[in-house]
Amino acid sequence: MTVAIVIPTLNTQSAIDQILTEIPEDLLDSVIIVDDGSETPIHAENVCVIRHEQNKGYGAAQKTGYDAALKRGAERIILLHGDGQYNTTDVLGLIVPLAACDAAIGSRFLNQGAGQIPWWRRWGNRTLTMMANFRYSANISELHSGARAFRANVLKDLDYHRFSDDYIFDHQVWATLLSKGATIGERKVLCRYDDTVQSISVSRSIRYAAGVMRTIVRPPPEA
Q1: Does residue 195 form part of some domain?
Q2: Does residue 161 lie in a domain region?
Q3: Going edge to edge, which strands form the sheet with 76-79?
Q4: pLDDT per residue over 29-45, tens digit each?
Q5: Most buried among 96, 174, 193, 201, using CB within 10 Å?
Q6: Radius of gyration of the chain from Cα atoms?
Q7: Backbone conformation region of residue 134, classed left if phi is above 0, alpha if psi is from -120 to 50, else beta
Q8: What is the CATH number of the domain that holds 58?
Q9: What is the model's pTM?
């Protein structure tokens, strides 16, 4: 089984250096780093680095990474954040639920790690997840984690280039898959919130939440 590890990043060279030490050596040739216009280009030896000369957005970076992974012929594709927010080993473990599911998400609510999330983000996450579960008759503990993995055939059948280049891309993917009846597995993942990880501002979080609610009410373009 061929695996690809897609790592979108923006100005996180030190985090990338650490993450690469945490990925098993036999998986390093599976890594695809997408540098989304960092001020100083991301450098990494012995792995694939694709650079956007200008910042295009978090969703756009995922699209570039998924395109490259599918072109390689990867059968399983894992998304790993480039700022080190999510525990690397936990995220790589998402390959396990893919044995029985179309996609997998790393949930912070399956362990004690969710307590590290700022209360207002935690409340918003739970509320939006509950709304989506009701809309799609699902029962998932968290739909707003950046830790995720997919079977290649799922992404091939998903016209993700029609989705946003911004953060709402994440929920458009899940909403479309759930509307299509795809199976989504979960696995616990630890995360951290400190000054070294990237986090969107309150205003952008509000715009994201509004976008999620619009997506819940009105199916995304693919659906």
Answers
A1: yes
A2: yes
A3: 48-52, 31-36, 3-9, 76-79, 148-151, 103-107, 184-188
A4: 999 999 999 999 999 99
A5: 174
A6: 16
A7: alpha
A8: 3.90.550.10
A9: 0.90
